Amino acid sequence: MKIGIDKIGFATSHLYVDMAELAMARNEEPNKYLIGLGQQKMAVIPPSQDIVTMACTAAEKILTSEDKNKIGLVVFGTESGIDNSKSAAMYLVDLLGLQENLRAFEIKQACYGATAGIAMARGYLDLHPDKKVLVIGADIARYGLKTSGEATQGGGAIALLMSSDPAILALEPKTAYYARNVMDFWRPLGHTEALVEGKYSAKIYLDFFKRVYLNYLQQTNLSLGDFSAFIFHLPYTKMGLKALRTIISDTEPEIADNLKEQFEASREYNRNVGNLYTGSLYLSLLSLLQNSSSLTAGQRIGLFSYGSGAQGEFFTGILQDSFEDFVNNDHVSTMLAKRHQVSVTDYEHIYRQSLKNKDELIIDYKSDRAPFVLTGIKNSQRQYLRQ
């Protein structure tokens, strides 16, 4: 029995800031952001959007009534939790109108949360092959204005529909993982912005990738030539390129050139949205599928997931015959092209507004035409609206 990704949905804000303009406002050379980080645009998340609204929008784009009736498990991966107790999954189940006889919960391990959800989905579908699982990766990356991490912010949501008859990617059974307690990135209780040791985190990322990739090769006896593409967790897209370079430096030029070409396709969406935390790896998968011109059914894709603190995993999937039907969908590229650019000043104003955390709050959502919006907080309870 095959288990894997049947559908992928994506949502982000209708607003963005240009990275070259942000660089100039911070007295930086634009190429430091454009080339040094590999970022062109950064999603700006207004107060009317949060992880729930974006997750609902991403999921609603792909779910049919039949899908909703078959979902028996919902796993919401995030590190941007909106409540210390209540799961964001419960809001999502209600807003999407899913059946109530299911399991739904939230899971956290930095940017690894959605991958942990996939692992749970595999176990569930093995026992319930007639069901489907909805895995969410939704986050808003915040490091603060005028900080060293500001240029690696962003936000959005990925929705993965998992099934025992996947149309896009069938996951192979073997996987390699590695966990170690490190302090490269964290957000203490009460903090709205993350703390990060940037250079140390990049070093740990590369170390974990090398460990799990080599472990996977040892388990499977595969070699670099058995892969058609590699995709990575991308806090910024240059990070994935650094990881790729560690494994292609000594290989045949033809293989190296192909893998670099596929990587460029896989980072197109990420470089125009920014950091999605838990959804980053899967936005990269979506970008690869819709921007590569040379993928074919039966090819093997390698996926590296990383969550600071830290957890790493390397696993693989085989492209299915019907994946090309998904490739021809231009909804994401059209959505990104229709976003509105905001000035750096407006971005800073929106950012400060979004940090408000009050027991009572009224949000002006009229200019936000997203299908789901946050309208405010009443009696410490978040108020959502399906438009």
Automatic annotation (TrEMBL):
CDD domains: init_cond_enzymes. Residues 3-164 form the Hydroxymethylglutaryl-coenzyme A synthase N-terminal domain. Keywords: Transferase. One of its GO terms (biological process) is acetyl-CoA metabolic process. (3S)-3-hydroxy-3-methylglutaryl-CoA binds at residues 143, 242, 275. The keyword Transferase applies. The active site is at 79 (proton donor/acceptor), 111 (acyl-thioester intermediate), 233 (proton donor/acceptor). InterPro entries: HMG_CoA_synt_C_dom, HMG_CoA_synth_N, HMG_CoA_synthase_prok, Thiolase-like. One of its GO terms (molecular function) is hydroxymethylglutaryl-CoA synthase activity. Residues 176-247, 257-353 form the Hydroxymethylglutaryl-coenzyme A synthase C-terminal domain. Belongs to the thiolase-like superfamily. HMG-CoA synthase family. This is Hydroxymethylglutaryl-CoA synthase. The lineage of its organism: Bacteria, Bacillati, Bacillota, Bacilli, Lactobacillales.
